[in-house]
């Protein structure tokens, strides 16, 4: 008997639908964050118990509209983890956190993946996750309620995973 459950590969249609939702979700996150320097981080747990995480730094501007990423490979890996989280067949739980470089203190927002979409996470849970340990040099962040992200019309009504 194997030590970990076997991962079942999602079908192509589910993966493609999740890729489309990922593009919509990231666009909604970018719109919610607005202009500035941001770090997106995703943490997920696969059905075999493996914990995966990735972060990507990006800069958003509104006039003209643009997005620049510091490391394209890191952003691609983060987006790929979000695809599998939104697809839901190989992931049991995931959260996407956005931290924003803002004065006087950086801000943090977090969404959890549920039903194939990103939903605001409870701010008390986010605060517990981002509060630096006493004596550490980590940046203390203001925690704000994550805005609800508008789900695009045409979301798969059949999707019950995520």
Order of helices and strands: HEEEHEEEHE
CA radius of gyration: 16 Å
Q: What percentage of amino acids are in beta strands?
A: 25-35%
Supply the number of helical segments.
Answer: 3
Q: Which blocks of ≥5 consecutive residues have pLDDT under 50?
A: 156-162
Strands, count: 7
The share of residues in helices is 25-40%
Major sheet attributes: 7 strands, mixed
Give a description of the structure:
Residues 156-162 have low confidence and may be disordered. α1 packs across α2 (72-87). A hairpin with a 2-residue loop joins β5 (107-114) and β6. This protein has helices at 12-33, 72-87, 123-130, and strands at residues 36-46, 51-62, 65-69, 91-101, 107-114, 117-120, 142-143. By secondary structure, the protein is of the alpha+beta class. Strands 1, 2, 3, 4, 5, 6 and 7 form a seven-stranded mixed beta sheet that branches. The relative contact order is 0.18. The chain contains three helices and seven strands. It is globular, with a radius of gyration of 16 Å. Helix content is 28%, strand content 33%.
Salient structural properties:
33% strand; 162 residues; disordered C terminus; alpha+beta
């Amino acid at each position: 008997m194997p030590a970990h459950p076997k991962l079942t590969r999602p079908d192509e249609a589910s993966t493609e639908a999740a890729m489309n939702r990922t593009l919509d979700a990231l666009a909604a996150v970018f719109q919610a964050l607005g202009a500035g320097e941001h770090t997106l981080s995703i943490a997920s747990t696969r059905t075999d118990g493996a914990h995966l995480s990735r972060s990507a730094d990006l800069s958003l501007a509104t006039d003209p509209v643009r997005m620049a990423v510091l490391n394209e490979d890191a952003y691609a890996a983060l987006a790929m983890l979000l695809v599998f989280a939104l697809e839901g067949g190989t992931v049991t739980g995931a959260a996407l956190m956005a931290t924003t470089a803002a004065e006087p203190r950086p801000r943090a927002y977090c969404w959890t993946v549920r039903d194939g979409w990103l939903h605001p996470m409870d701010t008390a849970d986010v605060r517990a996750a981002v509060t630096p340990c006493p004596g550490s040099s980590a940046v203390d962040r203001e925690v704000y309620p994550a805005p609800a992200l508008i789900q695009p019309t045409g979301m798969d009504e059949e999707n019950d995973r995520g």
